[in-house]
Write a structure and sequence with these properties.
Elements (H helix, E strand, L loop, with lengths): L14 H21 L14 H5 L11 H12 L21 H13 L10 H18 L12 E5 L2 H20 L8 E6 L5 H8 L7 E4 L11 H13 L3 E8 L11 H11 L2 E5 L24 E4 L1 H4 L7 E5 L2 H8 L37 H37 L3 E3 L7 E6 L6 H17 L6 E5 L2 E7 L7 H21 L6
GO molecular function, one term: carboxy-lyase activity
Keywords: Decarboxylase, Lyase, Pyridoxal phosphate
Protein name: Tyrosine decarboxylase
Length: about 500
């Protein structure tokens, strides 16, 4: 099919064209996933501005056939991508995709409803309340965080959004007690040196002075978890200075090392000082559907909010972040708006909610508009079930255990911190001394592996040491891919050591 005639009207939702185009895209993606392991995991030797040189300076005047567009994707776009769904992608944390996640995404995008008010799409809003309770029950969350127990949940786009929302709720709760907004200069937020940097960003966004964000050091002795004693010491100093403890983050599965903070102990400190306790389980929360990992959430009943990202390790395509709160009232009072133009959609013509149980999710998030994420997560849960999803998690944990044992058995390497979940942090440890020299060798090793295109990993720095991270969790990743990357690492270690004129052990 060629370009449309100049005077031909476009038919954006013609059912026949919709079906034809959708089939073409599905076939294109099926071919991509069949061959994804043939692409270099990370695009190599690309300079910034490459795509601008390949594409025209202006948008086309006339529409083009979809097959031409897809051919350009194949030729110009795919070579410049980092292939997050490659089975040899071990960087950052996994960003899962699945057939069920894609089907749910198609339903979400295809129906294209905007459930910001209950009345704007009642079934979409109600499905979300059902799905977040399903997820909470799978993770073993207490009833006080679920709709069934007086709390409730919402699907955000990311942890960053969830953090800003909970910080705003905590801020307003505290300011109401302190008598006014001018007291914001007294509010203090606490996190560890392993906590994700988004909490510092979120604190700035809600008006907390940067000097009132406390980054509390951790150590190897605690597995780089945040200790209650360390928090108490910092909080006591702040209170003695007339400051007001506001918000404490406990992380289950930190980004750098997979460390776990003791939720119960931190929760008790938070309760003692009236702080909001948030539990960030963005990555590792998915593992809590397995009974053997739910112990890491011990004490979560003390939390004011909990978040985890199904789009990381739960086979749910981007974007989807579950946020649960014990007091929806505190969240909605900080985030709600009620303009006149949203009052004319109620069933009784008054703008009042048709029932006490109706949820207006616009008041649970930053933006007004929102996607129908619930149907995507619902399809994933329906298609794979708890048993299938637990198997998905356990398969990657088993592979990580294998890799950890392999690293520990090779005297040239060391496991930097004991593995938790499916993240292994390690480094090459030659016999010579000097941290700078060892760091340089590990930088070279990581670069050498990534430059092959056969795998992609990222690093972290802890206690001044450069550490390589292997994060296992891709939907297509199997044990054989982990074995392959270990073989690649061993080979490149020999080359790096020889190139630096050091002998391998």
């Amino acid at each position: 099919m060629g370009s449309l005639p100049l005077d031909a009207p476009i038919l954006p939702l013609d059912p026949e064209s919709f079906a034809d185009d959708s089939r073409a895209v599905v076939d294109f993606l099926a071919e991509y996933y069949r061959d994804v392991d043939k692409y270099p995991v990370r695009a190599a030797d690309l300079e910034p501005g490459r795509l601008r040189k390949l594409l025209p300076d202006t948008a086309p005047e006339l529409g083009e056939p979809l097959e031409h567009v897809l051919e350009d994707v194949r030729r110009d776009i795919l070579p410049g991508l980092t292939h997050w769904q490659s089975p040899s992608f071990f960087a950052y944390f996994p960003m899962n995709a699945s057939a069920a996640g894609f089907a749910g995404e198609m339903l979400s995008v295809g129906l294209n409803v905007v459930p910001f008010l209950w009345a704007a799409s009642p079934a979409a809003a109600e499905l979300e309340t059902v799905v977040v309770d399903w997820m909470g029950n799978l993770l073993g969350l207490p009833r006080r965080l679920l709709f069934s127990g007086g709390g409730g949940g919402v699907l955000q786009g990311s942890t960053c959004e969830a953090v800003v929302c909970t910080l705003a709720a905590a801020r307003d709760r505290a300011l109401a007690k302190l008598g006014g907004h001018e007291a914001i200069m007294k509010l203090v937020v606490y996190a560890s040196d392993q906590t994700h940097a988004t909490f510092q960003k979120g604190a700035r966004l809600v008006g907390i002075p940067p000097d009132n964000f406390r980054v509390i050091p951790t150590s190897a002795a605690s597995g780089y978890g945040l200790t209650a004693d360390a928090v108490r010491a910092v909080v006591d100093r702040d209170v003695a200075s007339g400051l007001v403890p506001l918000y404490l983050c406990a992380t289950v599965g930190t980004t750098g090392l997979g460390a776990v903070d003791p939720v119960r102990e931190l929760g008790e400190v938070a309760r003692r000082h009236g702080m909001w306790l948030h539990v960030d389980a963005a990555y590792a929360g998915s593992a809590a559907i397995c009974p053997e990992f739910q112990g890491y959430l011990d004490g979560v009943e003390l939390a004011d909010s909990v978040s985890m990202n199904p789009h990381k390790w739960f086979l749910t395509n981007m974007d989807c972040c579950c946020l649960w709160v014990a007091s929806p009232r505190h969240l909605t009072s900080a985030l709600s708006t009620n303009p006149e133009y949203l009052k004319n959609v109620g069933t009784n013509g008054t703008g009042n909610k048709p029932a006490a149980a109706a949820i207006d999710y616009k008041d649970w998030q930053i933006s007004l508009s929102r996607r129908f994420r619930a149907i995507k997560l619902w399809v994933v849960l329906r298609r794979y079930g708890a048993v299938g999803l637990r198997g998905h998690i356990r398969r990657h944990v088993t592979a990580a255990k294998w890799f950890e044992r392999a690293v520990a058995a090779d005297e040239r390497f060391e496991v930097v911190v004991p593995r938790r979940f499916s993240l292994v942090c390690f480094r090459l440890q030659p016999r010579w001394s000097g941290d700078d020299a060892v760091d340089d060798v590990n930088r070279e090793l990581l670069a050498a592996v990534n430059e092959t295109g056969r795998a992609f990993m990222t690093h972290f720095v802890v206690d001044g040491k450069f550490v390589i991270r292997l994060a296992i969790g891709g939907a297509m990743t199997e044990l054989r891919h982990v074995m392959d990357v270990w073989e690649l690492l061993q080979g490149k270690a020999v080359e790096v050591l020889q190139a630096t004129r050091y002998n391998k052990v």
